[in-house]
Specification:
Distance between the termini: 64 Å
Number of helices: 15
Helix content: 25-40%
CATH class of the largest domain: Alpha Beta
């Protein structure tokens, strides 16, 4: 303890508090490289100054990133200002130009949401390029208080009311326990200048209205309102952390498909309490472009009701150009796919063995006469191939696209089944089903190409010759 106190000699009281706060929550690891997001405002300038003061004590390597959103003329001057101070404090500097308006148009979200998404993407990309352990952001206790109020206004659940986490992934917030007045006083003591962002007072934005109107109005009833809101966030954060741990346990039981487009088991989802199920839905949303932007608790609860409900299949449109889909035991959320023109139907006559290019699908059907004794005992290699008893087919054959009412007897089944139902049971995506070639001998369906063979045409032990079928897919249109 004495060595620790000695190590803090010469530090400003605010710097000591930030160091204690960071040690307590393991936000800053000695000997690590940290990317610092700096805008030139008072909070980020204070963050950089504090980290520079702690640098030699904690053996830190600091690199600075300025995100230029391309929305304000003043950004050029801010970038130069941040660059000069980064160099003055011997920090590596870089700037990133963000395509915020293009992102906004693509995601159909607000300008602020687009700026935030672009900024976090740029920070994470730069962190990986710099091989930094973490990204330090300058959120303060005042930001936390505002976030709780914004959550109330938007109808957020417990997670939203818990405010800004001290750490999420590589992003850490060492100033989250410091109030804005303390930061201004610290900058004054250190003689460090900062720049004001005029958009912080633009009342078109909800945060600006909360900061300059709502919070001051609440302080007329309780001057200590920012502190009370931070205490509330801290209490709720502890509850949220516990529920998130339980959610991770549930996720391991109910989720599949990896991080790209995770799929939840509807049956298992229905068995969890609402507090866990709703967080699993949020986890799915966070792994889709747009995350939770534009969504409130009513969206989450609606999705949970639909996912865990009795409806066998359906879709639900979401903000951010996304759609939720459920069918049987599967529930997932993915970007909305623009409507595609219906694929053209096709039909080709086949007079004998050879190759047939199916232009409408980009695939090729290959037919070869073979002797069964030349086929390995284990049979064909995969479902893209099939063996048909030669003496059971009648030429010419025909390959065509599926039609309503098509039926056949799948291999291993006693009865018949509709082709549409067979493709659904085999989990062939809906948009691919019209492009699956069907091979016919007269009025009998022989093979659902690449999916399943008809029982009556399967080559048996008494067969001498067989027709070897193979379907090689090309660039199937989605």
């Amino acid at each position: 303890m004495k060595a620790l106190k000695k190590d803090r000699q010469g530090l400003d009281p605010l710097e000591i508090r930030v160091q204690k706060f960071s040690e307590q929550d393991e936000l800053i690891h000695p000997g690590s490289r940290i990317l610092v997001g700096v805008s030139g405002g008072p909070d980020s300038m204070a963050l950089l100054a504090v980290l520079c003061s702690l640098r030699s004590r904690l053996d830190l390597e600091l690199t600075v990133l300025y995100c230029h959103h391309g929305l304000r003329a003043a950004a050029d001057q801010e970038e130069l200002f941040v660059r000069q101070w980064a160099e003055r404090w011997d920090c590596t500097f870089s700037a990133e130009r963000l395509s915020v308006r293009e992102w906004q148009q693509a995601r159909k979200c607000s300008l602020q949401e687009a700026a935030r998404e672009c900024r976090y993407r740029a920070l994470e990309a730069q962190r990986q390029r710099q091989q930094a352990r973490s990204v330090a952001l300058a959120h303060t206790a005042n930001d936390q208080a505002e976030e709780v109020l914004i959550g109330l206004i938007r109808g957020a659940g417990l997670g939203g009311l818990a405010g800004i986490p001290r750490q999420r992934g590589p992003f850490v917030r060492p100033l989250l326990g410091i109030y804005r007045e303390e930061i201004r006083a610290y900058l004054g003591r250190r003689g460090i200048p900062w720049l004001e962002d005029a958009s912080n007072r633009d009342l078109r934005f909800l945060r600006a209205r909360v900061r300059h109107h709502l919070l001051p109005a609440l302080q007329q009833y309780s001057p200590n309102m920012p502190v009370q809101l931070n205490r509330l966030a801290e209490l709720l954060r502890a509850d949220e952390d516990f529920l998130q741990e339980k959610t991770r346990e549930a996720w391991a039981l109910a989720a599949s498909g990896g991080d790209e487009i995770p799929v939840l088991s509807r049956r298992r989802l229905a068995g969890f309490p609402q507090a866990i199920g709703s967080r699993m839905i949020q986890t799915v949303l966070r792994r889709t472009p747009g995350g939770l932007a534009g969504l409130g608790s009513r969206h989450i609860l609606t999705l949970l009701r639909l996912a865990a409900g009795p409806s066998p299949a359906g879709t639900f449109d979401l903000p951010g150009n996304r759609v939720a889909l459920w069918e049987k035991d599967r529930f997932l959320i993915r970007p909305r796919i623009p409507a595609q023109p219906q694929p053209r139907s096709f039909s080709y006559r086949i007079n004998g063995p050879g190759e047939v290019l199916i232009r409408e699908t980009g695939g090729t059907l290959i037919l070869k006469k073979v002797r069964l004794e030349d086929i390995p005992k284990k049979g064909v290699r995969n479902e893209q191939e099939a063996l048909v008893a030669w003496d059971k087919i009648r030429w010419p054959l025909r390959v065509r696209s599926p039609e309503a009412g098509d039926r056949f007897q799948p291999l291993g089944m006693a009865g018949t089944k509709k082709v549409a139902r067979f493709l659904m049971d085999r989990k062939v995506p809906r948009d691919r089903r019209p492009l699956i070639p069907l091979l016919w001998s007269g009025e009998d369906l022989v093979w659902v190409a690449g999916v399943g063979l008809a029982q009556p045409f399967a080559a048996g032990a008494d067969s001498i010759a067989a027709l070897h079928l193979e379907y090689r897919e090309g660039e199937i249109r989605n």
